[in-house]
Design brief:
Layout lengths: L4 E6 L3 H11 L5 E7 L2 H11 L3 E5 L7 H8 L6 E6 L3 H9 L4 E3 L4 H16 L5 H12 L8 E6 L2 E6 L3 E7 L2 E6 L2 E6 L2 H7 L5 E5 L2 E4 L3 E6 L5 E5 L4 E4 L10
Helix pairs in contact: 2-3
């Protein structure tokens, strides 16, 4: 890179922040632009400073590392090196999505290895692969058994869409159309796969090609031949097939 890499250190332990700071001091191409001792401060600094690289502690009280990334996912997503104490789920998630992490305590050689990979990610930021993998990691980390967010493409970017923000899911060829207040997005998935991923107490399949967010339903009225019409709060109307009426009606 022609300019120094701008790094932010996020950890609720002062000694841990100092350790990262000392490791970075050995690298002349790194400029530390700030430090954060909690998640809220981290979100504010990332929004304000737009760092290239963040060393992010995973386990922090209140707003943890994942919550920090969720908070800034629609604005600025830097290259991230996760810093963590042993957490089996977290390590498996990082490995699955090809993200580097530092397991406390870490030696200088391991730190330098992670930093080297981060440099490579930063140098190739012309690609949105890093952003996509990070959003997929956030989507996959939900502790619930049902999916709570979707990674969608929007122009040249990837966005994270909360399942609760989706009014309806409608089949379109090999894709599912997600209708939200912010717009319509497409994900490659079958309706059968989608139905298995959604919480049945919050979402209901009303047709072989349609799933609705139950909280978005305004009213249900009889239509024809035993079918019904479902009107959503935004005025959108959908067909409730008699084959699926037991999902919503007694």
């Amino acid at each position: 890179m022609d300019r120094a890499i701008r790094a932010l250190i996020v950890d609720d332990e002062p000694l841990a922040r100092e350790g990262v700071r000392l490791h970075l001091a050995r690298h002349q191409d790194i400029t530390i632009v700030g430090e954060a001792g909690d998640g809220d401060e981290a979100v504010a600094l990332i929004d304000d400073l737009k760092p290239d690289l963040v060393f992010l502690d995973v386990q922090m009280p209140a707003l943890d590392g994942f919550a920090v990334l969720e908070s800034i996912a629609d604005s600025h997503l830097p290259v991230v090196v996760f810093v963590t104490a042993y957490d089996q789920y977290a390590l498996q998630a990082f490995d699955t999505h090809a993200f580097d992490y530092l397991l406390k305590p870490f030696p200088a050689a391991r730190f330098d290895e992670a930093l080297g990979r981060a440099r490579g990610e930063i140098a190739s930021r012309g690609s949105d692969a890093t952003r996509r993998r990070l959003l997929e990691l956030l989507a996959a980390r939900a502790v619930e058994s049902y999916v709570t967010r979707f990674v969608v493409r929007h122009g040249e970017r990837f966005l994270l869409v909360k399942a609760d923000d989706v009014h309806s899911f409608e089949a379109s060829g090999n894709y599912i159309r997600l209708r939200t207040d912010r717009g319509t997005y497409m994900v490659r998935m079958t309706m059968g796969e989608l139905e298995k991923k959604l919480d049945p107490s919050r979402f209901a399949r009303i047709h072989r090609s349609t799933v609705v967010n139950i909280e978005r339903i305004k009213d249900i009225t009889p239509a024809w031949h035993g079918d019904f019409e479902v009107q959503l709060a935004d005025g959108h109307r959908l067909r409730l097939s008699r084959n699926f009426r037991e999902r919503l009606l007694p």
